[in-house]
């Protein structure tokens, strides 16, 4: 600032006013002559410069460039600025002033003005403003802009901005990979321009509500038409942008292409519906089959009873008239008819076991087990069994079905006993969601490869002559347990006994 630049009410005041401007300024002000000697400086400058001057006390008249511990670069830089000033140039230059061993790192804005004596330049005046804070803020802003730009470039998402009319005012390059249009084509268009009429209406209604409440757009799925005509599903998220008066000026957001995910989801949904239909068909077929097995086994009972009675009558009446071979044949026929009777009985049991004809009730498994063991003690009086029965729960189940499960499992334990004295252990274990019930014996055991197949209908590991049976008992157990929402399995090895474990949910599914 020059005295001539100051307009004051009283010319005599000019110098005092000039002094007060200089005093109140936080800038450094100094002047050098054409030989780089300091010819004037304000106190701010002297206080700053003295500790970093070579002699630690810079005086008026000293060579400014030689007196300061400048780096060679900085010295040249300042020297050049002064020389430009000497040549009459008025300019502003930004300089980074670094003296690492003094811990100084400042940015200064140098305002350089030649000092004129008439037409002749006799030196320069420098006003140096400390712009460190704003410079670092600007550098930080630049760095964060570069970072943001890199994120934009590396993101697979499309970033956009629309104005209050919903017109694109900015859009990142990724738009082309999403919709096939380049940035130039998209600017000026609206998101709705890419939608089919019905989608436009659907999304439009949602968007109306969002804008009315100045809310953010959160995970808004919308279908768009790609430039090549294909359908593209975008997931839109965005924030409202407001001006200084709080007026909505538009939205800034991100679109993610979720076409693949959405198509897979839709395909999965379709497959699920198909599966549901097939399951329904299968359930229907299954119940038809069960009905058929029930009717067939029920209706077969009567003719079988007739065959058996006539065979028995024949055996009784003509036993003395036929030769031993014919007698043997009659025995075979009677035995086969007997086996068929069991088969039909068990088949009937199996086909009716799936029917939920019975009501669910609180069933005390302790009572069921004690009833069955008593019954078996009478019906299998010749088998010595030691029962070890733990505390069993009261479950919500079908009473008769539970009876059937324990009857089959305990009956099998007795049937498949080994030479050893039979010990049957029945216990329960409380799990988080289920009761786990175990029926364990020390009988002949089952080889691991049959652990699954024994639960299938008619699967037996022995001939009828070794162990009577039809291969239906465990299939019935499985069906009943599953009907109650549980699972059944066996833990066993040959000659190591067998443990049948099944679960019953504490809460009915
Ligand atoms: P069944 O006893 O009428 O043959 P199941 O369905 O009850 O029919 O059993 C299927 C097969 O599983 C039996 O034939 C037998 O080989 C085997 N099995 C069932 N329970 C036991 C057990 N406790 N110990 C050994 N094997 C068993």
Question: Quick recap of the structure?
Answer:
It is built from 13 helices and 17 strands.
Description:
This protein has 13 helices and 17 strands. The strands form four sheets. The chain has a five-stranded antiparallel β-sheet with strand order 2-1-5-4-3, sandwiched between helices. Strands 7-6-10-9-8 form a five-stranded antiparallel β-sheet, sandwiched between helices. The protein has helices at 14-24, 43-49, 64-67, 72-86, 132-154, 175-179, 183-186, 197-212, 259-318, 324-353, 365-379, 399-415, 473-483, and strands spanning 28-33, 38-41, 91-99, 104-117, 120-130, 158-163, 168-171, 217-225, 231-242, 248-257, 361-364, 385-389, 394-397, 422-430, 434-440, 488-492, 498-505. The chain is elongated, with a radius of gyration of 50 Å. The protein is α+β, with helices and mostly antiparallel strands and 509 residues long. The relative contact order is 0.05. Adenosine-5'-diphosphate binds next to helix 12 and helix 13.
């Amino acid at each position: 600032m020059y005295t001539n630049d100051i307009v004051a009410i009283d010319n005599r005041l000019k110098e005092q006013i000039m002094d007060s401007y200089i005093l109140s300024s936080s800038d450094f002000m100094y002047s050098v002559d054409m030989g780089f000697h300091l010819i004037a400086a304000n106190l701010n400058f002297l206080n700053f410069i003295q500790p970093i001057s070579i002699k630690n006390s810079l005086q008026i008249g000293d060579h400014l460039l030689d007196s300061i511990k400048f780096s060679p670069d900085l010295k040249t830089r300042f020297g050049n600025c002064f020389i430009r000033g000497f040549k009459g140039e008025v300019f502003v230059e930004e300089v980074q002033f670094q003296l690492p061993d003094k811990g100084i790192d400042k940015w200064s804005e140098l305002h350089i003005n030649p000092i004129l004596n008439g037409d002749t330049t006799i030196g320069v005046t420098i006003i140096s403003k400390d712009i460190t804070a704003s410079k670092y803020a600007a550098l930080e802003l630049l760095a964060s802009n570069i970072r943001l730009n890199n994120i934009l470039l590396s993101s697979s998402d499309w970033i956009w901005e629309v104005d209050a009319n919903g017109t694109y005012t900015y859009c990142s390059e990724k738009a082309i990979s999403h919709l096939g249009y380049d940035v130039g084509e998209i600017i000026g268009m609206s998101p709705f321009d890419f939608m089919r009429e019905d989608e436009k209406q659907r999304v439009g209604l949602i968007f109306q509500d969002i804008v009315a409440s100045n809310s953010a757009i959160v995970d808004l799925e919308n279908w768009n038409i790609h430039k090549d005509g294909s359908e593209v599903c975008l997931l839109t998220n965005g924030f409202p942008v407001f001006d200084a008066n709080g007026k909505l000026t538009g939205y800034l957001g991100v679109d993610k292409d979720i076409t693949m995910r959405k198509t897979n989801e839709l395909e999965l949904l379709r497959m699920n519906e198909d599966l549901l239909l097939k399951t329904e068909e299968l359930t229907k077929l299954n119940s038809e089959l069960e009905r058929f097995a029930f009717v067939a086994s029920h209706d077969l009972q009567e003719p079988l009873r007739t065959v058996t009675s006539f065979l028995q009558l024949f055996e009784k009446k003509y036993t003395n008239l036929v030769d031993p071979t014919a007698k043997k044949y009659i025995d075979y026929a009677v035995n086969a008819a007997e086996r068929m009777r069991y088969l039909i009985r068990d088949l009937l049991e199996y086909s009716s076991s799936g029917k939920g004809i019975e009501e669910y009730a609180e069933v005390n498994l302790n009572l069921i087990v004690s009833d069955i063991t008593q019954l078996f003690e009478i019906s299998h009086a010749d088998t010595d069994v030691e029962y070890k029965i733990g505390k069993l729960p009261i479950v919500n189940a079908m009473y008769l079905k539970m009876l059937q499960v324990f009857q089959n499992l305990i009956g099998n334990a007795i049937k498949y006993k080994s030479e050893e004295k039979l010990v049957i252990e029945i216990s329960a274990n409380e799990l988080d969601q289920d009761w786990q019930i175990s029926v364990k014996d020390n009988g002949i055991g089952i080889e691991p490869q049959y652990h699954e197949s024994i639960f299938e209908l008619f699967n037996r590991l022995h001939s009828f002559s070794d162990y009577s049976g039809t291969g239906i008992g465990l299939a019935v157990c499985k069906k009943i347990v599953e009907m109650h929402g549980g699972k059944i399995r066996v833990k066993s090895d040959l000659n190591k006994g067998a443990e049948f474990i099944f679960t019953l949910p504490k809460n009915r599914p």
